[in-house]
Design goal:
Elements lengths: L3 H13 L3 H13 L7 H13 L3 H13 L7 H12 L4 H13 L7 H12 L4 H13 L7 H12 L4 H11 L4 H12 L1
Length: 191
Amino acid sequence: KQDYKTAHKFWLPLAEQGDSRAQALLGMMYEAGDGVPQDYKEAVKWLKLAAEQGDADAQNNLGNRYKKGEGVPQDYKEAVKWFRLAVEHGLAQAQYNLGLMYDNGLGVPQDYKEAVKWYRLSAEQGNASAQYNLGAMYGNGQGVPQNYVSAHMWWNICGSGGDEDCVKNRNIVEKKMTPSQIEKAQELARN
């Protein structure tokens, strides 16, 4: 178990001196209540300082605070702004979050093609939630032509990591596929 109280004592002086990584880590501690009382306003204070210096994790987490209205008034457009900054660093979780915003039309016009773009970038980095959602987009034909082979492939990939929902969806879509389609999807998932 990590010693968060010791970490807080170590990071606080660095954060107060403007160290963006220490600021981001303090913000995350306050978000989760690790070693400190959970306090979203305090989390936002530190995350914003780090995010403004270009820390991708802080930008993503700050986007989540705006999306959920935790420590700040809920503001989807502001959430999108911070997710966009974080995706410039290639952060898989931010790519997934931006995909969600487009998928659901939060802070941006709903755009399934744009959602697929961001889910794919995140999924290709191994984000299981993005893999799941990308499988759903292919399975439902949202933002891409309906393609059970691709849906099966993405659900197979995230299912191989132990995600039971992915396995369940893969098994459902498999019933709509021919044996050669299943074989192709499995081959694609292995490569």
